[in-house]
Amino acid sequence: MSIELTLIGKPGCHLCDTARETIEAVLFEFIAANPEASVVIQEQNILDDEALQLKYAEEIPVLLIDGKMHNYWRIDEERLMRALYAKLKTQGA
């Protein structure tokens, strides 16, 4: 099984750029420690999807883990790492 991360944002959003950098840094460390883990990352642009724009316009960037809201505005590295380990643990059970 894999963990799916979805970053919802839009071009020109400095918080989205920062969130992307944070996610990449956390994943680098997480995958290094857990090479068996499979993490898929996708990005969605709220400007391309009216439903996303209506739902998240005031909250971007938004990070979903396996389709569920994890965080918005600022991504906390430690919280994301804990969530990834929790997912890994539940998938291994």
Automatic annotation (TrEMBL):
Which InterPro entries does the annotation name? Glutaredoxin-like, Glutaredoxin-like_YDR286C, Thioredoxin-like_sf
Q: Name one Pfam family in it.
A: Glrx-like
Gene3D superfamilies per the UniProt record, alphabetical: Glutaredoxin
Q: What is this protein called?
A: Unannotated protein
UniProt organism field:
freshwater metagenome
